[in-house]
């Protein structure tokens, strides 16, 4: 009997952590996808293909995919 237990979600979390490195990989393409950049959430507007969020002062901000790649992004808020 083993005392070590590993859930199925642990390997998935490790794979996700490797894939999420800032600026690496490609941005999601599904409308309403959410990514994080510099502590702010950005949502993909499908009909305009732009990422919409707010700046540090709460003002609306729209970024292209290229701008978001340069700023760095992740799928989780931890970045």
Describe the structure.
By secondary structure, this protein is an alpha+beta fold. It has one domain. It has 2 helices and 4 strands. A hairpin with a 5-residue loop joins strand 3 and strand 4. The protein is globular, with a radius of gyration of 16 Å.
Category from helices, strands and their pairing: alpha+beta
Q: How many strands?
A: 4
Helix content: 10-25%
Order of helices and strands: HEEEEH
Could you tell me the radius of gyration in angstroms?
Answer: 16 Å
* Mean pLDDT across every amino acid position: 78
Distance between the termini: 39 Å
Give the biggest beta sheet.
4 strands, antiparallel
Strand adjacency order, main sheet: 1-2-3-4
Structural domain tally: 1
Strand content: 15-25%
Which runs of at least 5 residues are low in confidence (pLDDT < 50)? 5-9, 12-23
* Tally of separate helices: 2
**Approximate shape:** globular
């Amino acid at each position: 009997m083993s005392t070590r237990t590993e859930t199925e979600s642990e390997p998935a979390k490790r794979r996700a952590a490797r894939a999420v490195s800032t600026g690496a990989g490609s941005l999601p393409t599904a409308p309403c996808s959410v990514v994080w950049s510099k502590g702010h959430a950005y949502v993909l507007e499908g009909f305009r293909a732009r990422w919409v969020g707010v700046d540090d002062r709460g003002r609306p901000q729209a970024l292209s995919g290229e701008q978001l790649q340069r700023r760095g992004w992740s799928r989780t808020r931890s970045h």
